[in-house]
Design brief:
- By secondary structure, the protein is mainly alpha-helical.
- 74% of the residues lie in helices and 0% in strands.
- The protein has 4 helices and no strands.
- The longest helix has 46 residues.
């Protein structure tokens, strides 16, 4: 939807960002795409730093739960980053289109 240069482009982008904040990426993506993205995020996390497992005290989040939350946040950030690139490209095309349309209006209007 963000690849289509329309006048409501910014509103569509903001709606997408709000949707990403409300829902888990797993709910919004195809299973194959989700697993591919998750592999990329896990590979990036493990290459950044190796973490050592420690037992959590009762009532505290375990390491796996924190990793899961970090993975979800990293996936959201990666999705938003990719969508933002598409948004910027489409926005540039929209500006060119509006400039062209404005030129047509001027040449067709009688003076």
């Amino acid at each position: 939807m963000l690849k289509i240069p329309t006048h409501g482009l910014a509103r569509n982008y903001e709606a997408f960002i709000a949707l990403m904040k409300e829902h888990n990426p797993k709910e919004l993506m195809d299973t194959v795409d989700f697993l591919t993205l998750r592999k990329e995020v896990i590979a990036a996390k493990t290459s950044e730093a190796e973490s050592n497992d420690t037992d959590a005290a009762p009532g505290e989040d375990t390491e796996s739960e924190m990793k899961s939350a970090e993975e979800t946040q990293a996936m959201r950030e990666k999705i938003v980053f990719n969508v933002k690139k598409v948004f910027k490209d489409t926005e540039d095309r929209m500006k060119l289109r509006l400039k062209y349309e404005e030129g047509i209006k001027r040449s067709l209007l009688p003076c």
